[in-house]
DNA sequence: CTTGGGACCTGGCTGC
DNA sequence: TGCAGCCAGGTCCCAA
């Protein structure tokens, strides 16, 4: 699933290859990919505009275009952005053609991914919380936000208004690294625990970016290569397997209808019983 | 205001 | 072998 490290990787890989290029054509193969407006409106708004910069906000990829317009993409669960793929298969939803001949293909099995073309990016990303790897995200800010929420801390980490870009995989990995059970109430974490969680979130995300993302399910880099961040996973998608730290069996519990994986030995629900 | 649950979508897996 | 049913999950929307 593309989360912050995967989108950051896609941005980094695409940026040197498409910055400065103008759109010469846009073929929308599945109208459902458009978050608003018609196919003609998108084509009219896109063709002739140049890509000035690429940015990422949370799990959104933002292409700042000439004329103060932004093309925003969200890959949701199974989306991928491919640059000049050898084949355009039945899962291709949009093909964007650039002046240098490059074809940027939005591929998506489950048809949840979305594209916006807007004058003001804030209409799409305005509600997002702080960027976890930026300076304005601090342990104090995280503690302040978590203290008001009486939901499981795992659910709080998935709330993009609390912190942007964390999804199911990296929430599980961050909680494991911080030795915090995913069902602990967000508001009941100690200041020390929140600080630990903050450090683990930053560390887990940075490592995943260095690995160019986690290729579970359909995520690949724009050139079709796989990332390797999933090789570092300790609990995510490892239900029933042995914990590499304590040897216990990794369990799965549903939280907000999402599978949450954790090690009951390393992440005790009771805080007064230190882990092995 | 907060919280919880359903909808969206389809490939892959399980079980009969 | 065939098929029904369920699971995966990011975000939005609605109800309590």
What is the 3D shape? globular
Poorly predicted runs are: none
* First-to-last CA distance: 31 Å
Order of helices and strands: HEHEEEEEEEHHHHHEE
Q: Which bin fits the share of residues in helices?
A: 25-40%
What is the count of distinct domains?
2
Give the rounded overall mean pLDDT.
92
Query: Please, how many helices?
Result: 7
The first-level CATH class of the largest domain is given as Mainly Alpha
CATH topology of the largest domain: Helicase, Ruva Protein, domain 3
Which strand order does the major sheet show?
1-6-7-5
Rg on CA atoms, Å: 20 Å
Strand content: 15-25%
Number of strands: 10
CATH architecture of the largest domain: Orthogonal Bundle
The major β-sheet equals:
4 strands, antiparallel
Alpha-beta classification: alpha+beta
Characterise the protein shown here:
By secondary structure, this protein is α+β, with helices and mostly antiparallel strands. The protein folds into two domains: about 5-125, MutM-like, N-terminal (N-terminal domain of MutM-like DNA repair proteins), CATH 3.20.190; about 140-260, Orthogonal Bundle (Helicase, Ruva Protein, domain 3). About 25% of the residues lie in helices and about 20% in strands. It is built from seven helices and ten strands. The chain has helices at about 5-20, 40-45, 120-125, 140-145, 155-160, 170-175, 190-210, and strands at about 25-30, 50-55, 60-65, 70-75, 80-85, 90-100, 105-110, 115-120, 250-255, 260. The strands form three sheets. Strands 1-6-7-5 form a four-stranded antiparallel sheet, with helices on one face. The chain has a four-stranded antiparallel sheet with strand order 2-3-4-8. Strand 3 (about 60-65) and strand 4 form a beta hairpin. Helix 1 (about 5-20) packs parallel to helix 7 and helix 6 crosses helix 7 (about 190-210). It is globular. The mean pLDDT is about 90. The protein binds a DNA duplex (16 and 16 nucleotides) through loops.
